[in-house]
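Hi L.,

You mentioned the student needs an example of a multi-chain input paired with its predicted structure. This one should do, with 744 residues in total across all chains.
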Amino acid sequence: MSIVIDIVFETPPTLPAAASIIIGVAFPQRVKMSDVARTAGVSVATVSKVVNGRYGVAAATVERVQQVISQLGYEASLGAQSLRSHRTNVLGILVAEFEPFSTELLKGASKEVAGTGYQLLAYSSGDGGGTSIGWERRSLARLSGTLIDGAVIVTPTVVETKQDFHVVAVDPHTGPSGLPTIDSDNFAGAVLATNYLLSLGHRRIGHLSGRPDLESARLREAGFRKAMADAGVAVDERLVRVGGFRVESAEAPAFELLSLPDRPTAVFAGNDLSAISTMDVARGMGLSVPDDLSVIGFDNVPESALVNPPLTTITQPLQRMGAEALRLLVDLIAGVERSTHIRLPTELVVRSSCRPFPPPPRASLPLTVRPT
Amino acid sequence: MSIVIDIVFETPPTLPAAASIIIGVAFPQRVKMSDVARTAGVSVATVSKVVNGRYGVAAATVERVQQVISQLGYEASLGAQSLRSHRTNVLGILVAEFEPFSTELLKGASKEVAGTGYQLLAYSSGDGGGTSIGWERRSLARLSGTLIDGAVIVTPTVVETKQDFHVVAVDPHTGPSGLPTIDSDNFAGAVLATNYLLSLGHRRIGHLSGRPDLESARLREAGFRKAMADAGVAVDERLVRVGGFRVESAEAPAFELLSLPDRPTAVFAGNDLSAISTMDVARGMGLSVPDDLSVIGFDNVPESALVNPPLTTITQPLQRMGAEALRLLVDLIAGVERSTHIRLPTELVVRSSCRPFPPPPRASLPLTVRPT
DNA sequence: ATGAAAGCGCTAACAA
DNA sequence: TTGTTAGCGCTTTCAT
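Structure written out for the whole complex:
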């Protein structure tokens, strides 16, 4: 008896009942493949075949299903799709945080991805302060295998390479591991920066380095020391401090540097953010940049041009680095044979935060016209 | 008989066989929950409970499972997790493309998300040229319901609001629908820009508008006309052209504008990118900005300060808009009662692309010092 | 040419 | 306290 009742309640799968059609019509919810199937009067398997362009579906059926798809506005769920197929045509860019550096890379990658058939998914672990190390590993574990077909990781500390999953690192914290890598010539850039300050006549030059565990930071400091040595200028170790690469972390060491009785006449900051921080600190101490202190940065993030005075800095081709990273990733996935280490050049960008030392005699320019 | 054979081949679920342990040890692949379960000698259900902090697991078990998790470096798959639980603690930001405008919003959102417990996932449809309309609908359909708990959509044309899924629009193309919205005071900003040009003495002022189907473009043009009318200056309709909001789309109309026999002495471009485009076109025609032509933009993307001459523009607090959008979304999800329409103020940023008209007599400043 | 059924990695009833 | 079971929405054999 009870068996009979059960059968009455269950809709036999062979009968796409009238009730289904009613449901299919009024559907304010997310429309899923089963909705398409029901409305088109076919199975989900058939819809899947149509969606993925598989063979073995009658032309008429394809037609009808596609009709329903566009009518219902169906779009496959990325989550479900990837869980099953392990192929999504989505590439990931994993960052700790969306700040000037990573967003410039993003712009470059975004341009490059056009026409490749991939879409871009940028994922921020939300770990701005670098408090929890291993964000790159966690983000990767969370997204790889499902969701994305490959990843660009920005300034990772460590990345164990999973098999069957392609990863390229941009500006990794440790030196070239086996990982495909894009970076810029940090060493040469640092030499460039230091030589510029030297050429302006500075001799007491300070350096605000990044954390010593970062490869780029190490290289920039090494470049600084090399240029100083080549110029025969001794480095005063009290003028070399760890500034980290963030605005907040640079404040204290910058203050210490500028509080020294014989403070430096110029500072080479490890990156633009710490340079900007240094300028802020200087201003707070009543020092004028560049009159009392020359400051040079590194990176050339857009923000460096927006501060007052505009920051003289070393430019890395950030957008191009993002583009190259994306291209490398695409090639890797496609199995293209190519070199997997790309180093891009750096260049000096002179703006207004540096001045010769000692300062030239200040001429008072007679102002003949004062615009309203 | 055959039944007996079947039973022999199937591993009884009550016996986590020795074979499993071997597999569990050497595992270079992505580690999944079942691996953790096997290694810890519990069921996946128990692991799930531990991962999600559910009650009803012995302290000792929790301990052991957590041990294994960190030892194996297990991280839940976003795809699988969201497919099942419909709750991911990930918020999406949907953009057509990662360009200066959207990346500024991203920076603001990224700062705001810290401490909310959410992570950020920015998704680019890859539709830069605006070729395929409806990218926002497609991206949303692809990610909502799974993967993300809510979304911020940047400059959407249309968005049908799904039930049970929160969406906030930033600078939507159409006027305020029912959708929660963040935008800036486009009208007031346009008045500001126009008044500035008028105050410099300009009367023949051109306007390069956005596409008329965009609300922000309409408002900016309306503000322009209002300011002109209030100043009693007639708008020459030949000086008003559709520039679109992109560098490429602005080139032709800018050229037309500047080729006019009585070309404008100043141009108010609908946004920074078209202003930059206008400056390029002017340069190509041998016109000097600001000497022969004043140009003012709108948005204040970082790039506007990087061009030569630096662009005078109207600033929208882009990062703050991103932050407000994110906060609104979080509140919406949390069910907080609050206003769902936020309009932020615009401001004039004077840089170097505008000059009084007619130009003041050019005084030749005697250069007494020329720095090397 | 089409559909039934299994299963991707996970969560949530419910049983034990 | 723990495990069994049934799916989430999709793809993919394998029958039919």
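You could point out the following to them. Chain A touches chain B through 63 residues (CB under 8 Å). The mean pLDDT of chain A is 86.

Best wishes,
N.
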